[in-house]
Amino acid sequence: MSSMKTMNLRFVPLLSLILIGAPVLSAGDIILHPNGFGQHSYAAWKAQVGLPDTSGNKNQALYFQKMTATTTFAAGVAVFQGIEGLPISQLTGLEFWIATNDGSHCGAGAPRFDVRVKLPSGSSTTYFFGCAAMIPGATQTAPSGKIYQQRTVAAPELMVAQMAGGTITGLEIVFDEGDDVGSGFAYLDNIAVAINGTPIVWTSASDNGGQL
Question: For the chain, first and last CA: distance in Å?
């Protein structure tokens, strides 16, 4: 895939041995579905604001918005559908690129990856990986002039989840910090999830499926 040459993915294949009996993902199994709920809050792909796409010339980026108070029950959300049932040990990387020169909010709690897991004990937990705590990396200028910076979940933080074990019951990007603590929006691109060291990358809505 041509865009991956410029992405400099830094995923570390921690505990990535495929478990016997574990589900094996195939092309098209995981899709990224933007959505949202509540007042003035949503997520959607926007054209001509992102980095070059893997196909076509729309240059899409995934826009998240919460133009209301943080305390309001509302959020822009993007759900990774089809990853449910995968052992957490097989999730070896999480990454997105965020715009840095347009006011996009990169806070401790948003945008963030939420990884929901059913633990071996039978109880459930959620691991949170917020933008501000993610490792900054390379930058790239989009045709629109927006500058995007790579943000990667730190390997030690992901290892904590892997070591605990269990099965993934949900994976989302959540934007629920409002315009009272920041700009109320963020543009993300080159969103990546690595399974057993192999990244699946979304540069636009057309990247759903067909990458494994």
Answer: 11
| Interval 169-192 mean pLDDT | 98
Residue 196 has pLDDT above 50, yes or no: yes
Class of domain 2-8+32-207: mainly beta
Which amino acid is located at 187 in the chain? Answer: Y
For the chain, the structural domain boundaries read 2-8+32-207
